[in-house]
Amino acid sequence: MNDTLLSAPGDASDTTMMTLQTLSTPALILDRDRMDRNIARLKGLLAKHNVTLRPHLKTAKSVDAARRIFPDGPGPITVSTLAEAEYFAREGGFTDITYAVGLDPNKAARAAQIHAGGVDLKLTIDTAEQAAALGAAGKAAGSCPAAFIEVDCDGHRGGITPDDPKLIAVAQAMQDAGVPLAGVLTHAGESYSLHDPEALAKAAEEERAAAVDAADALRRAGFDCPIVSVGSTPTAHFARDLTGVTEVRAGVFIFFDLVMHGIGVCQIDDLAISVLTTVIGTKPEKGWILVDAGWMAMSRDRGTSNQAVDQGYGLVCDIDGKPYPDLIVDQASQEHGILALRKGSSATLPDLPIGTRLRILPNHACATGAQHAGYNVIADGRPEITAYWPRMRGW
Length: 395
Hints:
By secondary structure, this protein is an alpha/beta fold. 29% of the residues lie in helices and 22% in strands. The protein contains eleven helices and 17 strands. The strands form two sheets. An eight-stranded parallel sheet has the order 2-9-8-7-6-5-4-3. Strands 10-11-14-13-12-15 form a six-stranded antiparallel β-barrel. The longest helix has 24 residues, at 197-220. The chain is elongated. Belongs to the DSD1 family. InterPro entries: Ala_racemase_N (IPR001608), D-amino_acid_metab_enzyme (IPR051466), D-ser_dehydrat-like_dom (IPR026956), D-ser_dehydrat-like_sf (IPR042208), PLP-binding_barrel (IPR029066). GO terms for molecular function: D-serine ammonia-lyase activity. This is DSD1 family PLP-dependent enzyme.
């Protein structure tokens, strides 16, 4: 796979090679080597279980990043918006797509049109009302997408529990409306609140068992259930048995983030994205260093605040990506970040002159990525920006 250097925001010209020292800040940085290593790790784990990886591209939102997962051509993917489905089909040739968000009936017509355009778009429902709306839209478009029935495996969000009679009722409503049943789909969202390996393995097994039990219940009732889809980044990495599962969805694994580190899924040096920022002021009497990356660059996500180690708005590293001991983005306004030592730290605030370049590791890769138009890609441990990968936006 060859990267093409495109003109990125802040480039001096189309031909000038930008570096971490010359790129306009704040800017989103992607370490391609770390990303490739993360992809290879999960692929290797799932190969042992003989299941398909259907990555959730809501994290990356980039065809260029998706191609690192599928170097030999488009593969099966998951999306969180219909705009993502349209983008990946149009720009990347991805046609095997699961939309893993409960269907808004008002979007049924748009989904049917995408399907009529040659995309094998599979939707997610858990009510008879959604089935009826999708069936009507499919008839109008002359092409009806298949749909998953969402299964509730841990009470985290939507879906139907495997033993709820509603499961069979929804399948019957789909059949009556002419909506093909793709299978069952679940997501162990409660795994994000865990940090113990045994607890994570237990969550993975509960996720698997719920999906398989629901599929078995549908089959006993006379319905085909070809796909049994599970997945979250924590459970994908801690699953010990995936018997009965046909595919695993995970998204943030491609980049990882501080929340995943706090859960115990990855190490700090696995985090593939960071925000490049510049020191613009100091307040040594307050123990502060000011930078030009506020919440507009980092997002307001404080996902580590309930974990054992609170990383503030992000963990601060030097320009090479090496963390400073206990230095975090303690406060954030729109365009200012205030760096300070973590409460209770015995470390010394580093002396960082005005103009010093730093990199901040994010709490939540999806949220931080969403603040930026694209990725400035680095590789091979070098400071040069080797490529610029645009991100898509919208719903």
